[in-house]
Structure formats: C-alpha cells, structure tokens
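queue> holo job accepted (zinc ion)
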Amino acid sequence: MGVFMLKGRIRPHTLVPILVLLLSLLLSGGVRSLAALAALPPSPLVILDAGHGGIDAGAVGAAGSKEKELVLAYALTLKEMFTEAGVPVLLTRTEDALVLGGEDEGQRGRKAKDLKNRAAIAARYPGAVFVSLHMNAYPVAKYRGFEVYYGAGEGSRPLAERITARVKKEVDPVYTRTPRAAGEGIYLLSHMTNTAVLVEFGFLSCPEEEAKLLEKDYQKKLCFCVFYAIMEEKNLF
Ligand SMILES: [Zn+2]
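queue> job finished
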C-alpha cells in the first residue's frame, strides 16, 4: 500500500506521456501549423475588372467577336471559381456598359471617367487584389499569345509571374509571353497601389487564337490558371 501511495505522489511520471505528446507535436510541426492557422489573415478581396463596355467595344476580332463581351464572360467564370473557394469578389462591371457611376454614356470624356472610376474602386479597397481582364489586338494577324502586365504595387510582379508560369505549363507553352511592367502607358495600373495585374488573354486579331478564346473549355482553362495563381500567391488554399 505504501508503494502505491508513493507512486501516486510522483506526479512527473504521469506528466511524461503528455510531455512526449507535446514534444512530438512540436517536432512534427503540428503546434506551429496550428499557430500559423490562427494567424492566417482573412482572405483578401479580389476585384475582377472586365475592361471596356458599352460604346467602347475594345478589340474586335477577325470573326467579329468583341473584347468587351468576352472579358465579361471571363470575369463571370472567374467570379464563380473564387466564390466556390470562399474568396470574396467584386466586379467593376456586370453589364455591357462603361463604369460611369450612373452618368450618361454619351457625354464627352467618358473613357477617362470610366478609367478614373475603376481606379477609385481599387483605391476603396487597398488590400484587394486587382485583376483587369482584356484581349489583345494587333494589325498583323500572326501575333498571338497570353500576356500579363503588372503594376507597381507590392506583390504585383510575383503574381504576374505566377500566372504566366501556370498558363505556360497548363495551356500554352509556345506563345505565352513574358510578363511586363505596366508603366505609365497603362493608366489603370499606374494609378493604384494594390497588388494589380492586367491580363491579356490572347490576340483577337489572330483568327486561330480568336477561335480558341471563344471556346468555353479554353476560357475555363485560362481562368483556372489565373484563379489558381492568385490562390497560391495569397496563400488561400
Ligand atoms: Zn482592352
């Protein structure tokens, strides 16, 4: 009986299994990942900016497809993907119209107003990732390929590189172009501090590429690359 009482008083013995468990958790990184999980920032807003709209058709393809219509379809596909993943999304436009804030499309200077309004939306959410969606065009039909421009805001270049790498790997290893700094030439990206990229999904002026850009499967593939890269870059998985 005395032996039992002695054992009961030696508390450290009972602590050993707990210490072993804690140690193994620490060594396996379990404790750290739990802590990291608790410190995970809330998901940032993703702003999907379908370029052009209304009186501004943007590029018009060899077969007559309009950039303003295609990029809105791409924006809606991307919206679905982010929503499914639980990431909040904001679209700068959901209709076939410039972003004029209720003003008449017919008045002068509307394109400048449209761009200012889009930049103002980005400024309202400085922590948001801003993704402007476009289609390219060039007078010479042979030019083609996916291309991303990046803004000066923090994280823009790495995001552009990640998107490009994914498209190169998953969709088009041949014609995908190297990402480029937006510079002053791209008003929207040079007027915001967000993590921002402008995606040119392809050249509507190249008949072969235009046909691909119109295919639903191709759209989904390209959108998935953009979606996936943002999820990876912002640690949202
Ligand atoms: Zn455009």
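queue> Residues 1-32 have pLDDT under 50 and may be disordered.
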